[in-house]
């Protein structure tokens, strides 16, 4: 019997749940680069040396070069941390771009990406061995999704590295995987989602990769971000996808996309078109100018 796609669509829908009316565009040099929660406008209006705040948009005040814009954003982030509006500075810089591959107009601390609703990027790796998938469990002290199931390797995409370079770095840090192995990973596409978060708006594009590893491969955490690793049959992973709140919220999208690509999801299944379009960002809403 063909299994329904309802659970998959529920995961995708949860990662695309937001109300455009709750946000205003964040602009740099008259172009939108993010979105800021409307209920934060009064707070941000105080920073009138760095921001122009109107009921319909917020704009950065800075000289028109990357260094000046980045410095203005860094100053603003420090003030927001000092006032308790942001928890901390992450000391990892994200590029502020409208599309991947463009020269960034500024660099922004990772910890403020959702606050300003900028488009952020990440890398996610499906690791397969003898037809089974390696899954990690996140450490219980993680700020986001503690103890939830996770891809074996995943991470945000910082400025200055290509996705492949970043993936190799993350493989070494999160799974102690040698570069001779991680370099064999194959890029497979991108997944888009946009969702409301407690920090603001999470507007993310995940670059996905697949890697087949030898049967004797055993991951070891190098950075403490994962506390356990499992190698499970794909049918069991599929069963887990149908259990609520087991995985970190965006991980099911990566696994469902893998299932679709390798033919585990039939195009005859009701909802297949919705699933394929949603993984490509078809539910994103406005602010795509």
In short:
The chain has 289 residues and is an alpha+beta fold. The protein contains nine helices and 13 strands. Strands 7, 8, 9, 10, 11, 12 and 13 form a seven-stranded mixed beta sheet that branches. It has a four-stranded mixed beta sheet with strand order 2-1-4-3.
How are the SSEs placed, and which strands pair?
Elements: H1 6-14, E1 23-28, E2 31-37, H2 41-45, E3 51-53, E4 58-60, H3 66-82, E5 93-96, E6 106-109, H4 113-116, E7 119-129, E8 132-138, E9 149-151, E10 153-156, H5 163-175, H6 179-182, E11 186-196, E12 201-212, E13 226-233, H7 234-241, H8 251-261, H9 272-279
Parallel strand pairs: 1-4, 7-12
Antiparallel strand pairs: 1-2, 3-4, 5-6, 7-8, 7-10, 8-9, 8-13, 11-12
Domain Nudix hydrolase: 116-257
GO molecular function, one term: catalytic activity
Pfam family, one: DUF4743
What attributes characterize this protein structure?
27% helix, Nucleoside Triphosphate Pyrophosphohydrolase, NUDIX_hydrolase-like_dom_sf, 289 residues, single chain, DUF4743, Nudix hydrolase domain-containing protein, 9 helices, seven-stranded mixed β-sheet, 2 domains
């Amino acid at each position: 019997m063909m299994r329904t796609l309802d659970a998959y669509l529920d995961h995708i829908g949860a990662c695309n749940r937001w109300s455009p009316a709750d946000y205003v565009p964040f602009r740099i040099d008259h172009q939108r680069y993010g979105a800021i929660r409307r209920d934060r406008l009064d707070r941000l209006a105080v920073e009138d040396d760095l921001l122009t705040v109107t009921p319909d948009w917020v704009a950065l005040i800075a000289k028109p070069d990357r260094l000046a814009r980045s410095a203005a954003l860094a100053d603003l982030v420090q003030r927001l941390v000092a006032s308790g509006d942001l928890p901390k500075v992450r000391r990892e810089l994200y590029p502020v771009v409208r599309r991947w591959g463009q020269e960034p107009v500024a660099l922004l601390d990772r910890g403020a990406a959702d606050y300003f609703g900028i488009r952020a990027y990440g890398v996610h790796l499906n690791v397969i061995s003898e037809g089974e998938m390696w899954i990690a469990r996140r450490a219980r002290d993680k700020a986001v999704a503690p103890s939830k199931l996770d891809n074996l390797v995943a991470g945000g995409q910082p400025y200055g590295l290509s996705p492949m370079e970043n993936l190799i770095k993350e493989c070494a840090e999160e799974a102690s995987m040698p570069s001779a192995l991680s370099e064999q990973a194959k890029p497979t596409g991108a997944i888009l989602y946009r969702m409301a978060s407690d920090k603001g708006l999470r507007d993310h594009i995940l670059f996905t990769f697949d890697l087949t590893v030898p049967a004797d491969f055993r991951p070891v955490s190098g950075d403490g971000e994962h506390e356990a690793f499992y190698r499970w049959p794909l049918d069991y992973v599929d069963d887990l996808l149908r259990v609520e709140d087991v995985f970190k919220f965006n991980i099911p999208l990566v696994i469902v996309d893998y299932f679709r690509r390798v033919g585990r999801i039939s195009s005859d299944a009701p909802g297949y078109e919705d699933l394929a379009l949603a993984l490509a960002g078809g539910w994103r809403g406005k602010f795509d100018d």
